[in-house]
Amino acid sequence: MAGETREGSLDAPTRHALQWQAPSFFDTDALNEELERVYDICHGCRRCVSLCNAFPTLFDLVDESETMEVDGVAKADYMKVVDHCYLCDLCYMTKCPYVPPHEWNVDFPHLMLRAKMVKHRQQKPPLRDRILSATDAVGKLAGIPIVVQAVNATNRSKLGRGLLSKTLSVHKNAHVPEYHSRTFRKRWRRNADSEARPLGTTRGRVAIFSTCYGNYNEPQLNDDLQAVFEHNGIPVQLLSRERCCGMPKLELGDIEALQAAKDTNIPALLEAIDAGCDIVAVIPSCVLMFKQELPLLFPDDADVAKVRAHMFDPFEYLMLRHKEDGLKLDFTTALGKIAYHAACHLRVQNIGLKTRDLLSLVPDTEIEVIERCSGHDGTYAVKQEYHDVSRKICRPVARRVTQAQVDSYSSDCPMAGRQIATTLGDGSEPEHPVSLLRKAYGI
Question: Which residues pair with 386 in a beta bridge?
């Protein structure tokens, strides 16, 4: 009935564009008013308490206040909650019963993003955060042949990690990825072109958005991606240019840096799309940036919308082709039992568990799915003040891996995989799903 209050989660969730260009968006009083409104709803529900540390932080502030309600929490403490949110989006997509179209219109991650943007505009982030989020600059500097050995040696040594801890507040026990001077873009060699075969919604030709991590830190992931796609008769090319997708800057609330990244990446992506390519990227966060975050931040940008329509997770793409009998099933190697961690930024793409579905096609392969956050976030887990909390968040994931008694464990997010390995602490190494798929094909 019209005007009647409805229970939550009775309709499919919808997402509104973020109105960051509105005059009131950066108004501190308006922000605090909305924070208080949403915090009060969260306090009355508490369904998301197990997801991350943002919600326990909020509930502790409420429970320790004089009124034991949100009105007893000092406005100055509101940002303590914001600082623990790493925009995984799981509360919005999997837990909250009050997301739009519910009349309470709760979008906790985007409210946290607004608060981060206000904070960034009001005060300069610490040097540590600016360095960690400058993935292109750090990757280029650390990847210089003479420099890369020193950087990697420092990151591996107890003395070097102690120095990083003292100077930049990077936790001494956090995994810090290695850098490569022979990046993926440097080692790229285009194979003989073949004819594209469109199937269903796929064009049958892809351009790889190599990502900062897949270019500088683990270029082998993109090697494996290229090998798997070409094995399936899908011609692969590399974007003419690219820079960081902007996710690390988004998590800082730096909308200006994100817009600068967009202005570089979108024309390069359109160039490939207009040449007949779809786009794939091996890092879920980067895919999510072009599929969801940029369209919600720039809803009237037709170029952003065009890129969104042609951006795919690799396993999503391959399963779309499998639906049209376009996936090769000539597997030569069984993978045994795999503990598969479904990364948060993949889950919120609403494409289903395509990685699980594809790996399950390999004979004598069993997939144990773990749908729980690893607590890494790219930078959250390496920060001095958050590392122990991140490990606590990851412990249930690591416990599931141990209990499953698997042959290998894997995550679409390589950083989440490393976080699981660090939490396990047994010297084991994760294997990325695309690397497992290449192994299954025997290529």
Answer: none
Cβ atoms of 353 and 334 within 8 Å: the answer is no
Distance set, CA 259 to CA 119, 244, 246, 378, 379 (Å) = 17, 11, 8, 20, 20
Please tell me the number of Cα atoms within 13 Å of 441 on its side-chain side.
Answer: 19
Query: Which fold does the domain 329-441 belong to in CATH?
Result: Rossmann fold (3.40.50)
> Does pLDDT of 168 surpass 70?
yes
Distance, in Å, from the CA atom of 287 to the CA atom of 277, rounded to the nearest integer, reads: 15
- The alpha carbon of residue 92 and the mean position of all alpha carbons in its chain are separated, in whole angstroms, by 15
pLDDT at 2: 46
Q: Phi/psi class of residue 38: alpha, beta or left (left: φ > 0; alpha: ψ in -120 to 50)? A: alpha
Three-point CA angle 51, 291, 188, nearest 5°: 105
Return the domain boundaries, the chain. Answer: 28-122, 127-168, 184-320, 329-441
Asked whether the whole model's pTM tops 0.90, one would answer yes
Summary mean pLDDT of the chain: 93
The structure tokens 């469109």 sit at 198
Q: Tell me how far apart the terminal alpha carbons of the chain are, to the nearest angstrom.
A: 60
> Which tokens sit at 263?
């202005």
| DSSP-derived secondary structure letter, 195 | -
Kind and range of the H or E run holding 337: strand 336-341
Widest pairwise Cα distance in the chain: 71
Give residues with Cβ within 8 angstroms of 47, minimum separation 6.
Answer: 95, 96, 97
pLDDT tens digits, residue range 118-132? 999 999 999 988 988
Name the CA radius of gyration of the chain, rounded: 22
- The answer for residues whose C-beta is within 8 angstroms of residue 267's C-beta and 6 or more apart is 303
pLDDT tens track for 409-423: 999 999 999 999 999
Predicted pLDDT of residue 14: 86
Averaged pLDDT for residues 8-18: 80
